[in-house]
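To close the section, here is one more complete example, presented without commentary so you can practise reading it yourself. The ligand is magnesium ion.
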Amino acid sequence: MLNNGWLVIPCFNEEGNVLRLVQLLEEEIRNKDWNLQILLINDGSTDSTSREIEQAEGTYGNVKHIDHAKNLGYAQAVKTAFKFLSQTDAEFAIIMDADLTHDPAYLSSFIQAFQEGAEVVIGSRYVEEGRMKGVPLWRQFLSWAGNLVGRIAGIPVKDATSGFRGFSRSAFKVINQCRENDFSIQLEEILLAKKAGLKFKEVPITLGVREVGESKFHYSLGLFFRYARLLLKNIFSKRKLILNF
Ligand SMILES: Nc1nc2c(ncn2[C@@H]2O[C@H](COP(=O)(O)OP(=O)(O)OP(=O)(O)O)[C@@H](O)[C@H]2O)c(=O)[nH]1
Ligand SMILES: [Mg+2]
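Output:
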């Protein structure tokens, strides 16, 4: 039986979303026998995200936050979180977006997957019963096409860029070894976990669409280049990853 779990939520300018998300998570957690704590990484937000986080922390005993004085980006927020978690007795951690597009109802699928021995759990749009709701068609197509190329290049999961993902304690070290600095860290995590021989499981999710605030994800040539570089490295490097701190 796994006991100590953490939810990691990177936040950059998520006013109108963060407090609501914590409330929804608390409702979900209340009736379960999980021991879950919530870690919010406030990454130099300039709106009222900090106030919402303070309110959440003041209301619920299982909420903690870490501030970056300035915006360091999604990847650094994740690394900060796992550096902190490595020093706790966390047995697993689940990363989710702050913008209410990841439904807390799916947490039970993640936790069940960990109980069954998975070390990396991906909330997936592309397994049976997984889907997207309200996501523009052009974004659906780009994501689908990207994942198809990825599968051909040897990615072990169908949804390599899902931000709803969990790591067991044995997989925390993967994140400490990631070098990417933006959303490409999501692909890097999966490729390093594969090289380390970790056990994957994809669980179906329906990805919603953000209703409040602006998207921070931008398709750029740089991002495509970084994806391509990671895939090529995956194809040509046969070295097994030895995890060390
Ligand atoms: N800490 C941190 N979090 C970020 C940063 N950029 C995005 N995020 C968070 O990462 C998650 C995903 O970002 P989104 O802007 O929702 O990106 P997306 O899901 O691809 O796109 P949309 O849902 O369409 O907006 C959210 O929780 C954001 O708050 C950042 O620079 N720092
Ligand atoms: Mg989003």
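Once you have examined the tokens, check your reading against these statements. Residues 4-236 form a domain with the Spore Coat Polysaccharide Biosynthesis Protein SpsA; Chain A fold (CATH 3.90.550.10). The helical segments are 18-30, 49-59, 74-86, 107-115, 137-152, 172-176, 185-195, 221-236.
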